[in-house]
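Lab manual, section 2.4: Encoding a predicted structure.

Procedure: take the sequence of the chain (326 residues), apply the prediction step described in section 2.3, and record the output as structure tokens. A sample record is shown.
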Amino acid sequence: MRKLLVLALVGLVAQLIDGSLGMAYGLTSSTLLLVAGVAPAAASASVHLAEIGTTLAAGVAHWRFGNVDWRVVSRIALPGAIGAFAGATVLSSISTEAAAPWMAGILFTLGAYLLIRFARPLRTDRVGGRLRGRFLGPLGLVAGFVDATGGGGWGPVATPALLVSGRMEPRKVIGSVDTSEFVVAGAASIGFLIGLGSEGFLLPTVVALLIGGLIAAPLAAWLVRIVPAQLLGAAVGGVIVLTNARTLIRSAELDGPARPALYALLAVGWLAALVLAVRALRRTRRARAGAAEAATAAGVPSEASDAASVGEVPADLAATGTPAPR
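Recorded output:
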């Protein structure tokens, strides 16, 4: 019972993070399950099965708020499902000893990416036009494969790529990626079912993660009003990097002074990322405040001034991390 309560707490924390950033449910859950000693394939399989329920709830909510571009969903979900199925098949065929450093390496890389991404403002200058299938297809294929083999990664790979393209509103990027993840999670679960059998899913773990995630869904809406996404992203990235570094260092059989030196180096990098995130957040808020004051003086509506200040950071992500209801 104590273990199930801990797993439910893991699902709750992961959903709070995902609801605030539009990503990292799988990354956070898989990392914490690996730390708890769950085998890599079983961890990814259980997380993806739980995600079927959490992504369905998230997709319905985004649809009701008008945050979904169904054209993008239709072009990224199917390739994502193919990539996820292939990734689940690959991970299921690897031994636990070989899969552990592989999965830790993917999670470490994605955690480092989160650190870099949220340590600086993300430019999304609008360039007009629509996203083409020849971009969305390969993106979904790669993101789906990484998501299944790493236990997470659909959001960290797909969301930034769509944001940087500048062709979609941030709120629709998050809504479309979250909605299409339902298909990706289902395909990954089928792949794990074929590769591992039903015994590959830790059903009590799945139920606990799902319950925690469903409880956290409404709480995430409150959390985003308190914690800026810029800081939360850098904090989560550091946790993922440090926890998975332990597996990589152990696999490399590093001993002596090298191990504490590496941990110290990673901790310094995490601290530097947090400092840069705070500075980026302050610059963004000053820029938006200045744009709002200038617009007020010129008699321009506040909505237009907000749009003008999005050149440095998406307005929907800069302060809250999730799209505002519109």
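Check your result against the sample. Residues 292 and 305 are 5 Å apart (CA to CA).
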